[in-house]
Amino acid sequence: MDFSRGIVTALLVACVTVIGITDYLTGPDVGFSLFYLAPIVWSAWHIGRATSLTLVAFSSAFWLAAEVAWRGVNPVSLWNGFTRIGIYLSMAWLTSRLRVEQQNLHETNAKLQAKLDHEQLLAGTDSLTGLPNRRLFVDELRRATARSHRSHTPIAVAYLDLDSFKPFNDRHGRLAGDAVLRSVGDVLATHMTGNGVAARVGGDEFALLIERCTTDVADDLVRRVFHDLKLVVGPQTNETVGVNIGVACFERPPLSPDAIIDLADAAMFCAKAQGSSGLYVTDILAEPVLSERR
To answer: What is the pLDDT of residues 214-229, one digit of tens each?
Structure first.
């Protein structure tokens, strides 16, 4: 990097030298004083103030040499010399200052954008489980629905609630209830990798979005989730809290995320109707394919 900068600086000095020689050969009838500003300003913007000030010194020396050679030393040439040096120094300083301010502005904008991204992430994240919240889940579902329609691929949405969670939370306290919810979130996050999204959409309600999956694939995945949740929730609650999961599978989902969630919620109530800890999977374009009680 320093080697490249040295080469560029040498080229700029050569450029100033060429301008100076041309200035000397053409004489005062052709004004070259402003031509020196091009390398001075360019170096101040792209390289730095030190290099630009070096070019100011070279430019001033060349211009004064040409001026004195043709006009001699007199008040006019001295005045012209001071004004040119003042112009060169001012442009070098102002340009380098603008460059620094621009860099500071970029850095400030980057920090503000990072904070904004962080705030947006927090706005879409459930603080207890670390999963997406309902707002972010609906956004993801809307995008997944659009992708499903474009690519003609199926999706599935599962709705989950914890049966008798409120009595457990009231009896054992918020800390115990939060521990159960965090455990559920951990299990769902473990299973929802790749083409799946897990979210906490309510107090004890969670949702899963599974893209590019058939009913059989969704059924297999949710069975594993159901099994792992029972292994976690049961011991933590002395088997007093159950898990109900309803799954709605779509070959071509409705365009409205709320309609999809309502259908998955209805499937969950079918699971709930079977008793504590139920699993119900249905293909919306066909008859329900699975009704199971645990």
So the answer is: 889 999 999 999 999 9
Q: Which long-range contacts (CB under 8 A, 24 or more apart) does 119-126 make?
A: 126/185, 126/199, 126/200
Neighbour count for residue 260 (Cβ, 10 Å): 26
pTM summary value: 0.62
Torsion sign over Cα 120, 124, 126, 131? negative
Q: What kind and span of H or E run contains 247?
A: strand 242-250
Burial class (CB within 10 angstroms; exposed 0-12, middle 13-18, buried 19+) of 240 = middle
Place of tokens 């999963």: 131
H or E element that contains 183: helix 174-191
How far is Cα 176 from Cα 290, in angstroms, rounded to an integer? 33
> Residue 8, Cβ neighbours under 10 Å: how many?
15
Cβ(170)–Cβ(164) under 8 Å?
no
Domains of the chain from N-terminus onward: 2-117 (no CATH), 134-293 (3.30.70.270)
> CB-hemisphere CA count at 13 Å for 159?
25
